[in-house]
Amino acid sequence: MIRLALLLTLTAAPVFAQDHILIQSTTSTQNSGLYDHLLPLFQAETGIEPRVVAVGTGQAIRNATNCDGDVLLVHSRAAEDAFVSAGYGTQRHDVMFNDFIIIGPETITADSPAAALTSIAQAELPFLSRGDDSGTHSREMALWNTADIDPTGASGGWYRETGAGMGATLNIAAGMGAYTLTDRATWLTFANPADLVISYEGHADLNNQYGVIAVSPQHCPSVNAIGAQTFVDWITGTSGQQAIAAYRLNGAPLFTPNAAE
Amino acid sequence: MQDFTAAFRAALDLVFRMDADLMEIVGLSLLVSGAAVTLACVIGFPLGAALGAGRFAGRMPLLVLVNAAMGLPPVVVGLTLYLLLSRAGPLGPLDLLYTPTAMILAQTVLVTPIVAAITAQIVADLSEEYRDLFATMGMRRTAQAATLMWDGRFALTTAVLAGAGRALAEVGAVVIVGGNIDHVTRVMTTAIALETSRGALELALGLGLILLTLSLGINAALMGVRAAARRLSDG
Hints:
Largest interface: A-B, 36 and 30 residues
Order of helices and strands of chain A: HEHHEHEHEHEHEHEHEEHHEEE
CATH topology of chain B: MetI-like fold
Number of domains of chain A: 2
Radius of gyration of chain A: 20 Å
Largest sheet of chain B: none
CATH topology of the largest domain in chain A: D-Maltodextrin-Binding Protein, domain 2
Structural class of chain B: mainly alpha
CATH superfamily of chain B: MetI-like
Distance between the termini of chain A: 56 Å
Low-confidence stretches of chain B: none
Number of strands of chain A: 12
Helix content of chain A: 40-55%
Mean pLDDT of chain B: 92
Oligomer: heterodimer
CATH class of chain B: Mainly Alpha
Number of domains of chain B: 1
């Protein structure tokens, strides 16, 4: 028993012993490899160890609301603003952007993403929805709303809600030849595209903005407020922004930094 | 078939390179699951012995409960522990969420019913065989239970192995309470889930092969120990 108690203490020890921050994050920044590139630079410059819990934006915000995180890095503007105005976060900052794309078995010619979705719905082509309150899911719902279509009535038919992460949903899309909405970074770094192509891209409605928020120490006294603010300052500052711009795949940038000066 | 060949190659490549990340992940898997199985035995053996050999009110309902708990969904255990260990939860001040300790706790909850239920079955079966012997000797119940456990020790390794199998294989609980944090709480199963979500299916399957090999090794080692111990005690 003593050995076990010792083991439990030892495995818990690093939490108290080191200066670290916990980042509740969307998955695309992890799946695309951005964190593998970015976070070692942050740690080298600040001495703070970043720990990432990558879940969907909805769950990340829930976890941060429960004070289970020091910083939020997500991509759902409405939910981020609500988080701050409810007093859970200090301030929201732009970090970077890329764009959403519709991927699927064939290209779609349309004037807007809403029109592209309309043609999918009319032809009843298989479409996968994340269905998980993630940033991508909320954008998808907003696009359906613009198209004035409620696809959930067809749920289980041509419209399928996976209730899973972006990667799992892409695997399903690859397996069954379905359309789905994804962010470009996750798609470009996804290693199992099968026969899928970018069906629709390049429209203002598909802009995908990422934001960073330090969890409020007033709401959560337990947070590492100094560490969190250091991270926010770093990623929106010169070093972080340059590091984001420098992260490329086959010469193409995956995210474009756009923090305000 | 291409995929399986690639998976096999990915696994071999990782192992022969002694990939540092892989070693860390394997080490944490063994630490977390090993500690959980040990704790589960500390609780499950006495509980199982009491359920198997004891005669007390509520024994049957408790036995049903323990047997049913063998089928606890890991994701439910993970979620419940998350709500308890969250900063907003009753155990929040312990600061255990997203630590290996939280993962050990979760797997202990999953493994204990397995160890207890199998132990109860082994002890109950033996207790039938020994009934007359115990009656003539006039042994006390606790002494009987100790005897049954000792004489059933070879069979009890099955309880340990079943528990270890569950602990090493589950992902639902540890991904929620551990968070799959690189270098902190990433274990084999959560790494496999992450690589799958990246579409790196060969690497994911390769990691799966390594996990399977580990499991095989642990089973073979315990069976070997059991056979050797049995020879010793017989000879």
